[in-house]
Amino acid sequence: MDGKKEKEVTMKNHKYLWPVIICLALLATGFAKDKVVVASKWAAAPVQIDGNPSDWAMEDTVMNKEFDLSYAFKNDANFLYLLFIFHIEKGQRENRYMSSIDFSGLTLWTNPEGKEKKNYGLHFYRKQVTADQLIQEMEKQGQTFTIENKQAIKSKPSYTIFACDIVNKKGEAVPSPGTSSATFRTSKVQNEIIFEYQLPVALLQDPALTIQWDMAQPLKLGFEWGGMTAEMKQALAARVGGRGATAGAAATSLEGQISGGHEGGGDFRAPESSLADSRRGIPKKYDFWIDLKIAAKQ
Predict the structure, then answer these.
(1) 70 shares its domain with 177
(2) Residue 236, C-beta contacts closer than 8 angstroms, at least 6 positions apart
(3) Which of 73, 143, 151, 170 is the most buried (most CB within 10 A)?
(4) Of 108, 129, 130, 128, which Cα lies nearest the Cα of 119?
(5) This prediction's pTM
(6) Contact between residue 104 and residue 70 where contact means Cβ atoms under 8 Å apart
(7) Which pLDDT band holds residue 52 (cuts at 50, 70, 90)?
């Protein structure tokens, strides 16, 4: 092919290529996610973290239609408060997107760079502890006990507490002071599962970051729940490694102790079931991101 004909073919190819490129660009724009910006309300008084939504105005909630849930934020100088509500359709037993949130917990990822990137988060979850561990946890929070108080607590072998860990990008808990004031509570009211969270403002950013969050600017905040917990991963690994049903049963004992409530889902099978059945029983993981604007003091 001589140079002239080669040039004509190249120009003809370009003629048909550009409309394709333009169409792809338009499609990409059409499917791009809209940025969701949510404004927190100033809390004139501290919010009571009890799973009761009476401290909140329902007209301030933001609806997420994808997961059939709504949420709202308040803050004061010290804390960020979150109301998180799963709605249950009439005639249904549960919200199908909950995916055992009451078991796996909710992780709130924060990113001051405005990116949907999971590097630093706060994981809120239920935790099974012994009586001695409960006393130790409460003493860390400044509570004091008489000998009689401790004996009364030790009359029960174990307790469920509402815990919060700071986690890295792999979801692993990392040491950090000050998490004792981060907490949550949950309740069921008619066709709604309600979660209330309290986060210290000081914990909204990874202290190791060189880029400091300007609180006058929105904070990229991600919600994540469901999926496998550390206990479930341990149990599955035991089965894959052929360590027997005993290891699997021990690893899933925590789930057995706190399941059966209103959280629903997450049927991680008995140790004697097949590996394929166990994988099918793993709850799905869900997440979404917003830009949160913290309210200034009024």
Answers:
(1) yes
(2) 228, 275, 278, 279
(3) 73
(4) 108
(5) 0.74
(6) no
(7) very high
Number of domains in the chain: 2
Residue type, 153: I
Question: Is residue 15 scored above 90 in pLDDT?
Answer: no
Residue 134: strand, helix, or coil: helix
3-state percent breakdown (helix, strand, coil) of the chain, nearest 5:
30, 30, 40
Q: Which run of H or E residues covers position 144? A: none
Token output for 232: 């479930």
Q: Which domain covers residue 119, as residue numbers? A: 37-227+289-293
Q: How far apart are CA 29 and CA 24, in angstroms?
A: 9
CA distance 289 to 143: 37
Least confident of 56-60, 183-187, 265-269: 265-269
The string of DSSP codes covering 235-295 is HHHHHHTT--HHHHHHHTHHHHHH-SSSS-------TTS-HHHHHHTSPPEEEEEEEEEPP
Does residue 99 lie in a domain region? yes
Same domain, 73 and 176: yes
